[in-house]
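U., I forgot to send this yesterday:
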Amino acid sequence: MSELLPCPFCGNNNITIEWEPCEPMCEGDTNRRWFAECGRCSCQGPFAQKENRVAEFWNTREYFPAPESQRSAAKGEEKPSGANGPALGGVKEGK
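Result:
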């Protein structure tokens, strides 16, 4: 598996691969939805049906900067009410 790049939102290097249960989307899928998660700002995604695709999706997604309030929260400043982290980014086309 490829090395995970730092978080595109807060620059943290503590990125883990996690999974959560889900319904299989097609034959051969597992009942797990895999994703990368930042240990500092809790940014997640993009989701993958196979664990071996998580690094590719994380490392090649488009960058959509979080609002300033969430970037401040990731740096240890006050976190906005109800904010769990930046929104998910998409995967670049052609990968």
